[in-house]
Task: structure prediction
Amino acid sequence: MKIAIMGSGGIGGYFGGRLAAAGQDVTFIARGDHLKAMQSSGLKIESEHHGDALVNPVQATDDPSSVGPVDYIIFGVKLWATAEAAEAIKPMIGPDTMVVSFQNGVEFNDIIGGIVGMDHMVGGIAQCSTTIAGPGVIKQMAPMQRIVMGELAGGTSGRIDTLVTALKAVDVAAEGSENVQKEIWLKFVFLASLAATTTLTRQGIGAIREDDEMRAFLIDCMREIVAVGRAKGIDLDEDQPEKTYGFIKTLPEGMVASTLHDLNKGIKIEMPWLSGAVDHLGQDVGVDTPTHRTVFAGLKAFSADRVW
Result:
């Protein structure tokens, strides 16, 4: 099984690193100092929850065309780089190549599939709190490491089962889903709301939970996403905000969204595809989303450009 990781940051670097450390044939597509560090010293995973790992030597390049066709592409670039990265992976696409994106948001599969072909795409979510701690180093900050995948039209398949089996072998809670579109939206309810509140307030989730106004703002964020998803035909429960908040109450106090990490590093953030997307998708289906509109307005100056 030949696997390529397109975007070797927190998610791609972590799961790709676990697979490579177990002996799978994994090639990492990266750039800059992160790539140089991997090529010279390998890829290191730091995790007090599941143990450290080092892949050295590591197969890493900034040129996808040098890799050739692969069986699986795990796609994990920032949302603002989706179209460019999808064009770049074309030389790695063979007749049976499966592409699974673990990006944030709810629109990425259509963008990638429109470039490489929807028949190559399956839906997926990854739940794992990670970051690039330094060039060549991926740090896991919370114990969860879960992946869910499914065919976009519904159900699972043999190609998904093969990757699920490989992930389970490295202690990842991986599973197939009969309704992956719902799973993607459930993640969006959580992630886009976490990103909106922790990034706008520059506070960890603990402080937001403890403050009446910030907690209400968080729940309003979730309610708007659920309303938009239900209007688009996604099978979300009306009380999903309360269910998601039940999970949020279990998170470490200092947990924040990756958008806040990016903001603090001076990296342009994904807000146009998070709160911005909630607002424009809401307009499409006639659902007002004033909370996310406010978040997007407040963070637009730090966001990547998007052609709507």
Strands lie at 2-6, 25-29, 43-46, 53-55, 59-61, 70-75, 93-101, 121-134, 137-150, 173-176. The longest helix spans residues 180-201.
